[in-house]
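Methods, example record. To illustrate the input and output format used throughout this study, we show the complete record for Probable M18 family aminopeptidase 2. The sequence lines were provided to the predictor; the line carrying structure tokens was produced by it.
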Amino acid sequence: MTPDNASQSLADFIQSSPTPFHAARSLAERLQAAGYQELDERDEWTLADGGRYFVLRNQSSLIAFSLGQSNALRNGIRMIGAHTDSPCLRVKPQPELTRHGLWQLGVEVYGGALLAPWFDRDLSLAGRVTCRDSGGQLHNLLLDFQRPIAVIPNLAIHLNRDVNGGFAVNAQTDLPPVLAHGIEPNRDLRALLANELTQQYPEREPLQVLDYELSFYDTQPPGVIGLDGDFLAAARLDNLLSCHAGLEALLRSDGKQACLLVCTDHEEVGSSSACGADGPFLEDVLARLLPDESERIRTIQRSVLVSADNAHAIHPNYADRHDGNHGPQLNAGPVIKINSNQRYATTSETAALFRHLCQQVDVPMQSFVVRSDMGCGSTIGPITSSRLGVRTVDIGAPTFAMHSIRELAGVRDVAYLQKVLTAFMDCEQV
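The corresponding predicted structure is encoded as:
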């Protein structure tokens, strides 16, 4: 796939995935179109040799797997892991605020978000809404307003003269978005959601909204930018870029090896949930693939997990924030992430395997180690590795402005990552 095609495919995926629920649905739709069969965890599973399947949990996490040729599991499973969530602003349970003639919604910061870029953006609202029909049945429906319905206006510099010297954002008081004039009395979010659901699901009867998980997001679509079209600017590149690359690798693999893609929710808040990487989702699926515990352990010990999550590219205006020998550049290939304190799960063995794969398919690669006097982020890699005992390498595409409302990646890196991950899925010996 050319860099332009890879970036456009990723842009389309991001545009259709404003929340983890929508991202999981987008992944599921692509898998179904490619012939993957959906499984339900509440049912008995009958898996065929060479079968291709996927399963959802909480509508926000997904595991897809291809069993490969006969006895392929004996050679281990090629696993790619990523996460569906991104830092954002989540709507509170009782959010309605009417102040000074304006209607606002109270929000809670989800994850380690860069907050300043959220001001003065055209925002929309999306997520999952749980409703009840007239017969008392509950339904989980995905909702996306799609159009700009909110904004968080900055305070004019005339009223905050020192703002350019540093502005500490108060998440409670500074972030409630403005949605409308407060002229309409007793405006209610649940009534607004019910009306929107009626428009988005016209075949359904009117529904009573009981609860929701809603996030604001930037409506500006992804775009290829730069004088020579070198960069992809988009929301949620961390970590939809990796989810998309893993999906492309799975769908483009030759089908000979046993392959698995796991995209879990809640990474940005620690992964400790029923559908997060620190929960039992992956272990539950592997236990059903390989019911015999001894066989499962042997298979896992023959397997490798590529934990794919974006890496920090060296910013030309802040080069001193990187170790001098470990400053990844945009468009220079995927990054192997290393930390001796196990914030990343990479070992010399797994790093060597990834370097070997990159060399085999002519993909450049880079290394990242955080400065020794700075803290280090983490990924699902150490969590999954410690739960399963699987060999793991942490890698990712280099990006700028990680955790901003709009991030930046190199267009060539999108294609590079897809290419090497496909080679990993097809690798005969790991």
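Annotations derived from this record:
Residues 237-252 form the longest helix (16 residues).
The chain has two domains: 3-86+235-426, 88-218.
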